[in-house]
Amino acid sequence: MEFLKLLSETPGVPGREELVREVIKQEIHGLFDEVRVDKLGSLICLKKASKTSGSHAPQKVMIAAHMDQIGFYVRFVDDKGFIRVHNAGGFDTRNLSANRVLVQGRKNLPGVMNPAGKPIHIASEEDRKKQFLVSDFMVDVGLPGKKVKELVQVGDPVTLVRDFAQIGDFVCGQAMDNRAAVWTAVRAIQRVKKTSYDIYVVFTVQEEVGLRGAGPATFGLEPDIAIALDTTLACDTPGIPDDQTVTHAGKGVGIKIMDGASISDRSLVDSFVQTAKKEKIAYQLELLPLGGTDAGAMQRSRTGYRTITLSIPTRYIHTVTEMVHRDDLHGARDLLAAWLGA
Ligand SMILES: [Zn+2]
Which one of 19, 67, 157, 213 counts the least CB within 10 Å of its CB? Predict the structure, then answer.
């Protein structure tokens, strides 16, 4: 799990995915026939078909796994050196207090994030009820204002910091959405020995701010089949009614029926279910009422594409304690590899 740990702990806010891209490049050395970076920053990797399908050109399969994570950009530094941020991606502000952060300034600066305002000891009844917006939070890097202004400027990325950990049967850390899927894509391709497809694995940018990288990549590649790899909600924890579980952690890779951004191509759903059954890989059909994946952008590129999403069930999504069951991670890898090699 060293690769996943490194992926999880490497910062990559939307638009600044370059460090994550480098980690992936190192890991995939020699795995693909062609590797290039498109103008938006997505990493496009081609593994050519090894089996021929008669006189036809091989079908093109595109697999998208986004590299970015929800994060922030510096929007203001005050005279005392306290930093204000703007979010890139959706945060639940209830989870933002008392966090360690990393500011990627002229050099990397560790910091803490807390809401501006009084600690509980001196807070009024009114203060305690306050619901915070991202704009209420500040970052303290523990340096004098002058020094901070030298090192940090508007537009520097800020990410939450949390060590990767193995907890019971799970792996846990920040940015499992979507580094768990990046891990899955690389490990799946490593298992594909022979394939009749030209496989394009695209590590996309800017998914968390509206699926911005996947659409142009799809436009350029014109795939016959487009697959998004992403995390999804596993609401199998207390306080959530059974009918809103979406997926159960540990019960298998999710084969998505629909979410807020796409409806999976029915024949692809059937095809993945068939492969899962044949290979005895646990799976669950997934329907997510809100939210979306790169499939939403891929489906609507050019004149439309057949798309599907394979999902990795994830507890506490969009927090720094995202938890993924090891069996689901391996199941997602095995299903994708089996389907591509079939
Ligand atoms: Zn995601």
Answer: 19
